[in-house]
Automatic annotation (TrEMBL):
The lineage of its organism: Eukaryota, Metazoa, Chordata, Craniata, Vertebrata. Ca(2+) 4 binds at residue 311. Binds 2 Zn(2+) ions per subunit. GO terms for molecular function: metalloendopeptidase activity; zinc ion binding. Its cofactor is Zn(2+); Ca(2+). Ca(2+) 1 binds at residue 204. Hemopexin repeats lie at residues 352-398, 445-492. The keyword Metal-binding applies. Residues 109-267 form the Peptidase metallopeptidase domain. Residues 1-20 form the signal peptide. This is Peptidase metallopeptidase domain-containing protein. It comes from Gouania willdenowi (Blunt-snouted clingfish). Belongs to the peptidase M10A family. InterPro entries: Hemopexin-like_dom, Hemopexin-like_dom_sf, Hemopexin-like_repeat, M10A_MMP, MetalloPept_cat_dom_sf, Pept_M10_metallopeptidase, Pept_M10A, Peptidase_Metallo. GO terms for cellular component: extracellular matrix; extracellular space.
């Protein structure tokens, strides 16, 4: 058994290393007794995993399979999901339940609540999000399910409650296999009825409106599904898919999620289904944030982005730094004064909220913004004719990590995962021989959320709370640290504390 583990460990490389055997045991594909598995068992387990993850079912631990194992996901085991799904589909075609057979868990005793009115309680709170916005997001997450089923939910702030939501770090008294693993990997887990517990990894960068970080609303809605008795779904875009997905434009609940909850609790009274697309919820959450940010003076003179992850950062021709998050942005002037949060659409009305990358180019004095499949270009506040354009028409990837103008190349550089692209701003075409591997940028990690060239001529790259300073002459990273503590021009060090 040792051989295949060694052979694949190298492939995962710089990504969060995942031991495939541990993974397959933890998520219910291999039995945990003695940790001894023959080749056939492992192959079957890999096939089951590939099926639920919508990968080609080969039984081989190939690179795609290993990368999928490293994706952020729910901590609940996938065991039994496949049979339950087959059962759900069978009901669609025949209208009746299939007689049960075999398997460790008996499906005749489905785990569910025997009442329709359930209460919930938020036991404690995540860092860096206000209680008001968390409460709103949790309420909306429960409402997704009550909109399509016979269930009704009510918050019981003081408890006792049927369903309790709590944030924990590391081990938290429900077994070492349920211990949280810090940022990335397992985001949250929950128990089937009628234990009524959903736990969230406190160490994640939770967000409700930004594009970077993990969206607490979507993860809560998924975990609520488990507390109601739902298991993981193999359906693409299902909320109950084990993998984290962003809040997008599509409907939050898929047909499979609705079918699963209705098989347990029936249809809503009056049979009227309400299904909200993600963009509606997104808009509501952002409006809420804006009202809240503007009504609350920034605590201790520090803007709120300082404690969290931002979506994008850039610097303009006056050396003002712009920091983008959700529907707002801040400016930090060259002299170091920080603006209050300003609505993105007030300055650039055509932009969507929660952009993924932004770059001001000193070459043509234009602003470039990236989100999803599209690129916007502005001259000052006016959208240039022909924009937004499709990224693919320019030869660029969708959903970039970050973008910046890079003087040594005289072009725009766009990072995405393990590769980077180079865009010629005059022709709006990708420069020949790109994309190339990110390893060209020695010392720069994958998954950065923003980058800019500061007045000292060096490139600064950001990921969550960390920064990397890349020296274009030495062509490698020469310094790393915590941007909010170490870089005064981020606007996060109160002016009185600054050493000049
Ligand atoms: Zn789950
Ligand atoms: Zn737990």
């Amino acid at each position: 058994m040792g051989v295949w583990i060694l052979a694949v460990a190298a492939l995962v490389g710089a990504q969060a290393p995942v031991d495939p055997q541990d993974f397959l045991e933890k998520y219910g594909y291999l039995h945990q007794d003695h940790h001894i598995h023959n080749a056939v068992e492992v192959q079957l387990a890999v096939r089951d995993f590939q099926w639920l993850s919508r990968l080609p079912v080969t039984g081989q631990l190939d690179e795609d399979t290993l990368l999928q194992m490293a994706e952020p996901r729910c901590g609940v085991s996938d065991e039994g999901s496949q049979q339950l799904w087959a059962q759900r589909v069978h009901v669609i075609f025949t209208g009746k339940n299939r007689p049960q057979h075999r398997s460790k868990r008996s499906f005749t005793q489905v785990e569910k609540w025997y009442k329709r009115h359930l209460t919930y309680q938020i036991v404690n709170w995540p860092q860096h999000l206000s209680q008001g916005s968390v409460r709103l997001a949790v309420r909306a997450a429960f409402q997704l399910w009550s909109n399509v089923s016979g269930l009704v939910f009510q918050e019981a702030p003081g408890g006792p409650a049927d369903i309790r939501l709590a944030f924990y770090e590391g081990e938290h008294n429900d077994g070492s296999s349920n211990a949280f693993d810090g940022p990335g990997g397992t985001l949250a887990h929950a128990f089937l009825p009628r234990r009524g517990e959903a736990h969230f990894d406190k160490a994640e960068r939770w967000t409700l409106n930004g594009h970077k970080g993990h969206n607490l609303f979507i993860v809560t809605a998924h975990e609520i599904g488990h507390t109601l008795g739902l298991e993981h779904s193999p359906v693409r875009h299902a909320l109950m898919s084990p993998y984290y997905r962003k809040l997008g434009r599509s409907l939050v609940l898929s047909w499979d999620d609705i079918l699963a909850v209705q098989q347990l609790y029936g249809k809503p009274p009056g049979q009227r289904l309400v299904r909200l697309p993600g963009q509606v919820l997104h808009a509501v959450l952002q409006e809420w944030e804006l009202i809240e940010l503007q009504s609350r003076p920034e605590a201790l003179g520090k803007p709120v982005y300082c404690q969290n992850v931002f979506d994008a950062i850039t610097i303009d021709q006056n050396q003002s730094v712009l920091v983008f998050r959700g529907s707002v942005y801040w400016t930090v002037s060259a002299a170091g004064s920080v603006s209050s949060p300003m609505p993105l659409r007030q300055r650039w009305p055509e932009l969507p909220s929660a952009i993924e990358a932004a770059a001001f180019s000193p070459l043509d004095l234009k602003w470039y913004f990236f989100k999803g499949k599209r690129i916007w270009r502005f001259t000052d506040r006016s959208l240039d004719p022909g924009f937004p354009k499709r990224s693919s028409d320019l030869g660029l990837p969708r959903h970039p990590d970050c973008a910046f103008y890079y003087a040594p190349l005289g072009h725009m550089v766009v990072f995405k995962g393990s590769r980077y692209s180079v865009l010629d701003l005059k022709t709006l075409r990708q420069v020949p021989y790109y994309p190339r591997q990110l390893t060209d940028w020695i010392g720069v990690p994958q998954g950065t959320n923003g980058a800019l060239t500061h007045v000292d001529g060096r490139l600064y790259l950001f990921r969550e709370q960390q920064f990397w300073r890349f020296d274009p002459v030495k062509v490698r990273v020469t310094r790393e640290g915590q941007w909010a503590k170490d870089l005064s021009w981020t606007g996060c060090i109160p002016q009185s504390n600054r050493i000049l």
